[in-house]
Amino acid sequence: MNRRKLSLLMLVTALSVALAGSHFAIATAEKPPSKPPYLDPSLPVEKRVKDLLKRMTLEEKVGQMTQINVTRLMGEDEWDRGPLNEEWMKKVFVDNHVGSILSGGGAAPVPNTPEEWAKMTNTLQRYALQHSRLKIPIIYGVDAVHGHNNVLGATIYPHNIGLANSWNPSLVREINERTAKEVRATGIHWNFAPDADIGRDLRWGRYYETFGEDPLLASEMVGAAVAGLEGDKLSSSDRVAASVKHYVGYSQPLNGEDRAPADLSLRTLREIFLPPFERAVQNGAETIMVNSGSVNGIPVHASEYLLKDVLRKELGFQGVVVSDWEDIIKLHTVHKIAPTYKEAIRISINAGVDMSMVPLDAEGFTKNLIELVKEKKVSEKRIDEAVSRILTLKFRLGLFENPYVDEKKAKEIIVDQADRELARRAATQSITLLKNEKNLLPLKKDLSTILVTGPSADNPANQMGGWTIGWQGVENPEEMPPAVTLLEGIKGKVSKNTRVLYEPGVPPEDQKDDPGAVDKAIKKAVNAAKKADVIIVAVGETPYAEGEGNTSTAALSQAQTKLIRALNDTGKDVVVVLVAGRPLMMTETIESVPAFLMAYLPGTEGGSALADILFGDANPSGKLASTWPKRIGQVPTFYNRQPGASYDPLFPFGYGLSYTSFRYENFQVPKSAKPKGALRVEVTVTNTGKRAGDEIVQVYADRQYQSVLSPVERLVAFQRISLKPGESKRVILDIPVSRLSVIPGDILGTEKRVVEPGTYQLRVGDLTKTFTISQ
Length: 775
Description:
Blueprint lengths: L2 H28 L14 H11 L2 H7 L1 E4 L16 H9 L5 E4 L10 H17 L8 E4 L17 H5 L4 H17 L4 E2 L23 H16 L10 E7 L18 H8 L1 H8 L4 E4 L3 E2 L2 E2 L4 H11 L5 E3 L7 H4 L7 H11 L4 E2 L4 H13 L5 H17 L13 H5 L2 H14 L1 E5 L12 E5 L6 H5 L21 H6 L7 E5 L11 H15 L4 E7 L17 H11 L4 E7 L7 H6 L2 E4 L7 H9 L47 E7 L3 E2 L4 E10 L5 E10 L11 E10 L4 E9 L21 E7 L2 E7 L2
Parallel strand pairs: 1-2, 1-10, 2-3, 3-4, 4-5, 5-6, 6-9, 12-13, 12-14, 14-15, 15-16, 18-24
Antiparallel strand pairs: 7-8, 11-16, 17-19, 19-22, 20-21, 20-23, 23-24
Helix pairs in contact: 2-15, 3-14, 3-15, 7-8, 7-17, 8-10, 13-14, 17-23, 20-21
């Protein structure tokens, strides 16, 4: 090869290398930067959390532990409802790195429509992400306790105390599945429900939020609600995180007042109040909300024993613990166990609270908590623990991948006729017939004239109760959810030739304390009653929530009592329908009328369901989930009492009438069982009447002698069945023997539950059988 050829070859080689290098450089420059591991959805959640946590500053971590009410983002007035305010969004998201927003009762966009809810949450999410250094989405929470009850247009289901009367966990699950779908459609990922409190004291203003007085029934309902809300895949577009509340012992304050101190033995706390929370944890509940009050002298927000030893170690809960509204600062202002707000924060965070529902002053919480960490009064390890749980929840919800919702689809998902049909079915199964002399009910549809009267006969707000659009229920008539009242339901049910008369029976609200106005309204109702074949009078309570619903009397108002008495004096048949969040002390009134129905707070379709039952298109099947006392002096009273306590109610737990009758026979129980086994019991139930009907098969157990006091009887199994006239069904129930367990030992009540050997008795209907448990 000559020198010229060699030079040419070297030149070509050099150019090739240069071009190759240039191509590599261009390719390298064009390759997008790799995403950090926490943004990789293919990685396990645990790895994503760990990667994100190590990138966060202390300020960013504390922001994740902070929850602020959406009204704070609308302006300086903490209860403003209006457009979002960018200045306040900056203070919340940029200055304080807040990771969670909630809508407290009534905190809705204007106008209150499904589309505006979706638009509002999308706007907040977009702003938060755009101003988050690490692109961490917010999690939004709401109290959707009987449907998506904050959103105008959403179906309002019966409150829990009514649903408990259905004894139908499948129904509760279905309602919560629908609720989850609607809540998620508006860009909300976290529902502060279900309520797992045990309802033993009807003076308490939140009684109607419970599933009644029995721990097994409440546990089954709570477990079903959690399963409905969360489903099998939390990141699905129709699922939300549940927040089971209010852990624990909240519902039996000494004086019956909301947030007042409770004084409960550990044995009672663990045997009666803890089981629904245990079931919720077993069913995968993602979050727990803490009791606002105190138990045995310690605010639960400050109790390491309850939040760590019991909830974490004993029950195995791994999710997020969130405070209730302002409850951390209340350790300072109400409970007086902390001399400053800062000290209250230290106590609660160290006790085990992961997130504070502040809910208005973000800086007050974040600044104090940051100082506490720098002062080593709260460890960084504790902060990382709390934030890891919060981030885990956000990843499990799929918020990093899908932070927004389709605003156009919100309305079609929420305004759904199928929901109304479900609400009607739920109300029908909840309504309880407690008295029906001479089979007055069902009424004939072709009666000549019917009088419908009473303050709840044509009042949708009353039948939906509190936590409906607003915290204390519907306060603005222009924001009344679409609903069917009792009057409307009756008009749509009777024959075209039947006259339906209507009189309110009570004066307008602004004249309710005027004796003259009361008498005038009653006189009008009595005059109309003289023309009627039958009188249907709907009475009860007006909406309330929380402490505003506390009562020392639980009595029907004097005006309503007077109205029923006057109508009864006409000699016409009177059917009383009670629309209320609890049993009311009206023993003489109930005894004076031939028919009495308890509707509780039946929701959107309450009027339709009541009309179905009153006129025989549906057979009442509700059974009381709580004892109905004769007088307020018996409160608290409950069926699963210990030996030595009397039980003389007006209507007992589990009671409810039907338009048909049922016979129980051939009750079979094994002669013996093991403490860790199951007990299979069988019974044949026959519909001996002429109408199809549902029966609640209830199995109770008791043991005459045990080492500690145990209930005189306790519910150990139940099943709802449907029977045609003359039909029989063999009902088979497998009962875990563990349901017979007690906490042994002395007065402390800290031992583990055990099933003690001995002879036990089971009862179903009027049949009983005995069996023994051996070691």
